[in-house]
Structure prediction request, 340 residues.
Amino acid sequence: MSEITILGAGIFGLSCAWEAARRGARVQVIDPNGPGAGASGGLVGALAPHAPEGWAAAKALQLQALLMAPDWWSGVEAASGLPSGYLRSGRVQPLTDARAVEQAHARATGAQTLWQGQALWRVRPADRPGDPTSPTGMVAEDTLTARLHPRMALAALIAAIRAQGGTVERSGTARGPVIHATGAAGLRDLSNDLGRAVGRGEKGQALSLAFDARDWPQIYAPGLHIVFHADGTTAIGSTSERDYDRADATDTQLDALHARAVEVLPALRDAPILARWAGERPRAASRTVLLDAWPGKPGHFIANGGFKTGFAMAPLAAGLLMDRVLDGADRIPDAWRMAG
Ligand SMILES: Cc1cc2nc3c(=O)[nH]c(=O)nc-3n(C[C@H](O)[C@H](O)[C@H](O)COP(=O)(O)OP(=O)(O)OC[C@H]3O[C@@H](n4cnc5c(N)ncnc54)[C@H](O)[C@@H]3O)c2cc1C
Prediction:
């Protein structure tokens, strides 16, 4: 039986651990701060596709990740006996002016081929319960967007890993290949080790409301996600901040985001706030997933760069990395490898 050590119990580390465990490896996950201590312990969990236009490798990889998610998460749920909060909820977006309506119609055409018949994008009147306020009275709707409950998903992964005999602990001694899935801190460590900037953290704030609309499609407007979760909470995200002293502190930027969410969906006005949260996204310089061997450190690998879509990308990244580390089959896309 192969042994493998994963450093970091966020969505990347736990996804790698589950992929390794279900292939029969003896897995240990070590995180001195405990599971979900980084960005993955947040609130939002939108699994949202890129717009179906201007197609590029990154968009194709994201589509692949979104399409594999239902089977992957149902496997985690079956192994753990716990819900992940996954639902292909779909999404609606208010259309602010005539140009946005025209662009949305063009995207509907693009989706017919680019989404390979797997999902729809359409334009329709904003006349259903849960639809956002829309200046044109129209929304763009897609059936590809999904959501996960971040903390439920991590708990389900941990239980699935343990059910296969793996461990998730705060300390331990590395055995076998080592996967560094250490988020923003890991990008700083890697930059220091290589003497060049390969990535950094980018702060985000979000909040959670007691508002139960678990069957509604999620809402997206630029910079604003409203995600209705399986446990009867509603998440609102997210700010994007480059300059900050404390990555875990919330402030008035979150109040402004909350106010905007209420404008977009007035039904949220009186919903009590359950939690305010801030964390640091791991943003690679390439702005894509970073999946590769650690240069100059044989037996060490990097799984990082989830940035704003880590929950969507982690299962695909984990599978590709375990293909390479455990099975010797290197199918990692060039776009995800270390530059230079
Ligand atoms: C406000 C906000 C909203 C977001 N919304 C979404 C969203 O809607 N959809 C989406 O897909 N993504 C979203 N993201 C991004 C997503 O959260 C991240 O891409 C993802 O969580 C990154 O996962 P990770 O496992 O790489 O890193 P992390 O979750 O940060 O995990 C890294 C872990 O490594 C541990 N660690 C650090 N150093 C060491 C070490 N030396 N040894 C061992 N362990 C170590 C840390 O304790 C931490 O637990 C959001 C992020 C933020 C901040």
Summary: The helical segments are 11-22, 57-80, 98-114, 150-163, 183-194, 252-264, 310-327. The chain has a mean pLDDT of 97.
